[in-house]
Amino acid sequence: MDGKRFALRSRMVLALLCAVMVLFAWVLFDLQVVNGSYYLEQSTRKIAVTEPVQAARGEILDRYGRLLVSNRAAYQVTVDTRLMGDEKERNETVLKLLEICREQAVEWNDNLPITRTAPFRFTVESPFENTTTAEDGTVSNSPTSLSRLITALRLRQLDKNSTADEVVSALRDWFEVEESVSENEGRELVGVLYELTLRSKDVVRSNYVLCQGVDINFITAVKERHMAGVKIDTVTVREYNTKYASHILGRVGAIQNWDNYKDKGYSMSDTVGISGVELAFEEILRGGPGTKDIELNQSGKVVSESWHTDPETGEPALPQPGDNLMLTLDIRLQEVAEEALKRHIPGMSEESQAGACVVTDMSGGVLACASYPSYDLSTYNRDYNALAADPLKPFFNRALQGLYAPGSTFKMAVAAGALEEGKITTTEKILDTGRYTHYDRIQDQPMCWYFRQYGGTHGYENVSEAIRDSCNVFFYETGLRLGIRKIDEYASLFGLGEKTGLELFEEAGEIAGPETSKKHDQTWYEGDTMYAAIGQGNTQVTPIQLCNYVATLVNGGSHYPTHLKKTVKSSDFSQVVEEYVPVAKDEIHLDENNLAAVKKGMGMVTGEGSAARYFRDLPVKVGAKTGTAQVSRNSEAHAILVAFAPYEDPEIAISIVVEHGGSGTLVSAIAADIIDYYFSARDTMDAPPVENTLVR
């Protein structure tokens, strides 16, 4: 081989080597510089998860389409313990996160049933065992989430007799919380770790949503700390478009009893209705969850995410928004009722501070349902501590759960029953002599209120006049003639002493009688019938029962369940999913003449009786009956009123109770405000703004 050929080959080999080295260098440059971050991220991809995505809840509207509860976009913070490193790193991350929550005044989800501050105590009566009673009376017990976790962690030093302090101490040891962490901070830390461990031990299956509805400042503070295992998502949260009807609309929140939801397709991190309409109509408002496929790297950063695809249909698993619910409620009438209670109650007596009002149509549709004092749902979390400590109990829904003796408002039920059973007639007159002398001993002779207060009598009165004057002697006699069995029967037919059928939680109450006395370990005497006939004794009813009773009476005897559901519409309002159709549960078949006599008495109350001055200038004629319910010798009686309007062709029924209000007559001012609005002022008010009205 000559020198030229060797030199040529050498140069060719050298050129080839140089080309290879240049190519190799370019590959390295591309891997490490141009696309280094991408390939690093791909190389560290480790975790693939499937996550449920909760659908937006349906909106809640009043009967005229005014928007009451809607949704708005907000941030949500989710915590995943799998990405937090060892126990020390995990605890440090959670403590930092809770510090941010405190700094930003953000409330986080903590369902450990123990107070957050020492000395620790349980926040539920039975922290280790759930007790449920079936409709047939069968009682069953099941372990709580705390009890199941204790079992899963094999914390044998704890049992059903353990104190809250012992539980916190055991959890601190298990989670390796350092002694330098204070008692209260340690309790907050183990509360979060409790939630995380529930999920990691498969006691429940879901991600842990630490907090929801946080603002951009909170998100910025979280992102600046670069905390592994902390994920931020955009979700929808409830937006309240009214400050009224809080007791009715209710709240949403974290699942409080997982056993009630675990078999219904829920994730434990889901937001659910926990009171009011939100709870009662959960299945309508909830919607259907979607599913996302998410890939995370070792730092917990999302590498990719996409909607899960059904392998059979190829359709993405998108969340389906809940249906929209139109209530029977008239939010403007609700506002009038709440403001009337607020304005009039404090001045009725030295003791009057609370009350309730219910307005329904003739077929049980609830137009307004107000309890005073109340609260604002939009500031619930901010105001919770002050509201919870208020001795007047603003969270208590007096309209549905308050139990009161009906007093003289019960007399129409007794009158109707006695007329229908032929025990009295519409024209018969009974003499009021001040004392009812049926019994020989004077100590057994009850007095009429008029004789007790003024020393006078009502003289001879028929049933209409006796209702007008609320003559006790007339109704003592009528009650004894009718008898307690028939009194109880007609009270039941009118829906008193039992739940009205409303979709929300309500108390049943009870009607005085031998069975009720036996239940209270009391002896029933014949003379007790007299007091039962004027709405005293053991009779306890709710304001909504009183309203339903009056509606049943004046509509001719058709007893409808009360209801809040009017219409259910699809999520886009394009279809009517359900239209509520009222169906009477009972028919009393009242004789027209008997009904006319009872109504006449109620019309005389507003036309010439004690309450006449409050009703004479209203746009329609009103029928009403006042009552006072004795509480004790040392306090004012509860003031009660029931009413209906218009007198000739009733459209609405009203009941009002003012605790310790004294005279039932004074309640008439509240009723007058409501009736005036309903039949006059509402027609002249400006139409609701377009943005708050849904015309579908």
List strands and helices in order, with pairings:
Blueprint lengths: L2 H32 L1 H8 L1 E9 L6 E2 L5 E13 L7 H17 L25 E5 L5 E5 L1 H9 L10 H11 L8 H18 L7 E7 L1 H10 L4 E11 L5 H4 L2 E3 L16 E3 L2 H5 L1 H4 L4 E8 L4 E6 L16 E4 L3 H14 L9 E8 L4 E7 L7 H10 L8 H4 L9 H10 L9 E3 L16 H6 L4 E3 L1 H7 L2 H11 L1 H10 L20 H6 L8 H6 L9 H12 L3 E2 L5 E5 L6 E4 L6 E2 L4 H16 L4 H4 L7 E7 L8 E8 L6 E8 L8 H17 L12
Parallel strand pairs: 2-12
Antiparallel strand pairs: 1-10, 2-3, 3-6, 3-7, 4-5, 8-9, 10-11, 12-18, 13-14, 13-23, 15-16, 17-20, 18-19, 21-22, 22-23
Helix pairs in contact: 3-6, 3-7, 11-24, 14-17, 14-18, 16-22
Q: How would you characterize this protein structure?
A:
With 696 residues, the chain is an alpha+beta fold. It folds into two domains: 47-327, Penicillin-binding protein 2a (Domain 2); 331-379 and 394-684, DD-peptidase/beta-lactamase superfamily (Beta-lactamase, 3-Layer(aba) Sandwich), CATH 3.40.710.10. 36% of the residues lie in helices and 19% in strands. The chain is built from 24 helices and 23 strands. Strands 2, 3, 6, 7, 12, 18 and 19 form a seven-stranded mixed beta sheet that branches. A five-stranded antiparallel beta sheet has the order 14-13-23-22-21, sandwiched between helices. A three-stranded antiparallel beta sheet has the order 1-10-11. Helix 14 (411-420) crosses helix 18 (484-493) and helix 16 packs parallel to helix 22. The longest helix has 32 residues, at 3-34. It is elongated and about 150 Å long. 42% of the residues are buried. Residues 684-696 have low confidence and may be disordered.
